[in-house]
Write a structure and sequence with these properties.
DNA-binding, two-stranded antiparallel ribbon, 2 strands, homodimer
Chain lengths: 252, 252
DNA sequence: AGCTGACATTTTGTCTGAGTTAATTTAGGA
DNA sequence: TCCTAAATTAACTCAGACAAAATGTCAGCT
């Protein structure tokens, strides 16, 4: 393991403040785990040796392990060591784990699985929103749609409006778990599909799809809203390039 | 708060090994947060004062905070302090957060929200399983159902068989995210509704409901499977007492 | 021979105290 | 008035020692 390859610039992490040392170590180890470099059942090596191998203090290393353990990736026990858990124990929907998963290698099968879950959850969310939305929610969604129309998804403002639309819709469900879940999933999908924005400007105009969802919710028609949202998400998946940009070297 | 009180008996935590000190602190603080004792925006007080107030070293306290931060509950930054995040940042579906949430106060509205999500996800899962299950999956579910029939949900073996059924069904979906999510949610619901097993022996025999799900999956009929699972879950919700058992004090 | 209990060992866990770094506040200057 | 630099304060990082826990080992007993 000579290469400390990763240039220190972890600058691409939009949502958090700059990572501290323990966060950096946790991220590094987390990626090694979710990418399979460390297999479930493997030991991570003693604290002392691991810490000095990473050129950090035992404190920083331990706090990193604590983070990984909090996300279900590892389990640390005296005399045994720190062991990588089976994948069934991982908190796959944790935002960081999701991030690490799609950072390391944008596995297309996994991406499909994520879209599948998003479809299930957000479609249902649209249905609930159609039943429970208040006029305030409706107004918020309308404003967001107008924002999407004037700016477009090509601008940051437009993307923010898109985000606002979906967020407001989720809030309208009144279900905090659905909000938490869908927000995280969508963020991960967004991160992954950010490449597409770069390749082709945009294959389709997403506004009509959003409008259909909005109108169904405004009319309080859950089934229609559900179907419209499902269509929207499936079209988004189609717009996602299913060919991995060949540059994806998995073998290090 | 003098004592180092905690008699070791945190025994109700079935899934983990005994908590260490940092885990205990994280749990304690986590419960304070999700229960609203600490409000979003509040500061947790300096490391030194907080640590000595809890009668632990700064190391243990810091590792506890690291755990909470990993679950999105707090955010620690130099000069600012450790601040409780807004609820939208919490990883509500994290198993520990879920545990803490329903440990502190079994909020009925929240419980309904959780059941709602479970209904959405697990019903969809049944549908996917009906499309994708292999004969091995089918055999596993059959065995589990037989186990439920011979033992009953009154015995530990029977409950294990019930768990096996649902787990195998989830595995049959082939979607790791759905597996991760549904497993966690069901565990939380199970923990919460464990009281019901005690109050009345069982209001209904859940076996027929499970059989309907099984048969739909065996017949590869997604819609039927989905409906059957939805019915099963809604009936489970009905069986859940909507009055909180005031005796819910466990130790302490 | 096989089992039971004490002990020895290894690894994480916890503690202490010092020094460092980052973000905010304040003061200074253009 | 606005921008820049120092002071402040909190978390962050480090180092090294000791404690506790889980495992493995071996003597002693049945």
């Amino acid at each position: 393991m000579t290469g400390r390859s990763t240039s220190p610039g972890q600058g691409h992490k939009a949502r958090g403040k700059a990572l501290r040392l323990h966060g950096t170590i946790a991220r590094k180890l987390g990626i090694l785990i979710v990418s399979g470099k460390y297999q479930p059942g493997d030991l991570l090596g003693g604290e002392i040796s691991s810490a000095e191998q990473l050129a950090v203090s035992r404190t920083a290393y331990r706090e990193a392990v604590r983070i990984l353990a909090a996300k279900g990736l590892v389990d640390a026990r005296p005399k045994v060591g720190t062991r990588v858990n089976p994948q069934t124990s991982w908190h796959l929907l944790d935002p960081d784990v999701l991030d690490w998963t799609f950072e390391s290698e944008p596995d297309l099968v996994l991406l499909d699985s994520l879209f599948e879950l998003r479809n299930v959850v957000e479609s249902a969310a649209a249905g609930f929103a159609a039943q429970r939305r208040s006029s305030v929610h409706l107004q918020g969604m309308r404003t967001a749609l107008e924002g999407m129309a004037t700016h477009t998804l090509a601008t940051e403002l437009g993307r923010q409006a898109d985000l606002d639309f979906h967020t407001t819709l989720l809030v309208a469900t009144g279900n905090p778990f659905i909000i938490s879940l869908a927000n995280g999933v969508r963020a991960a999908v967004r991160t992954t599909t950010i490449y597409k924005q770069r390749k082709q400007p945009l294959r389709r105009d997403p506004l009509p799809d959003h409008l259909r969802v909005f109108e169904a919710i405004a009319a309080k028609e859950p089934v229609k809203a559900q179907e419209a949202m499902s269509a929207l998400i499936q079209l988004a998946r189609i717009d996602t390039p299913t060919s991995k940009p060949a540059a994806a070297k998995k073998g290090r």
